[in-house]
C-alpha cells in the first residue's frame, strides 16, 4: 500500500501551476469586492477624456490656420 501523507493545514494553492502563484495566500484568488472603486475611477477618467464643444472649436481653428499657412507657403 502506498504511503499517504496527511496534511492538517495546506498553505499553498496546489491547483496553481506556477511556483509564484502557489506561494500567494488564498485571499488573493477570491472574487473582488462588490463596491469596486476602479469602476468609478474608469467612468470619471472617460468623462475627462471626452471632447467638449470648446475643444472641437479650438482643434478646428488650429487645423484651419495650419492648412491656410501651408497652402500660402506652397503657393
Residue stretches low in confidence (pLDDT < 50, at least 5 long) are none
Q: What's the story with the biggest beta sheet?
A: none
Assembly status: single chain
Head-to-tail CA distance between termini: 95 Å
Q: Kindly name the structural category.
A: mainly alpha
Computed over alpha carbons, the radius of gyration is 29 Å
> Helical content, roughly?
40-55%
Shape: elongated
How many separate helices?
A: 3
What report would you give on this structure?
53% of the residues lie in helices and 0% in strands. The protein is built from three helices and no strands. With 75 residues, the chain is mostly helical. The radius of gyration is 29 Å and the shape is elongated. The chain has helices at 19-23, 37-49, 53-74. The mean pLDDT is 79. The longest helix is centred in the last third of the chain and has 22 residues, at 53-74.
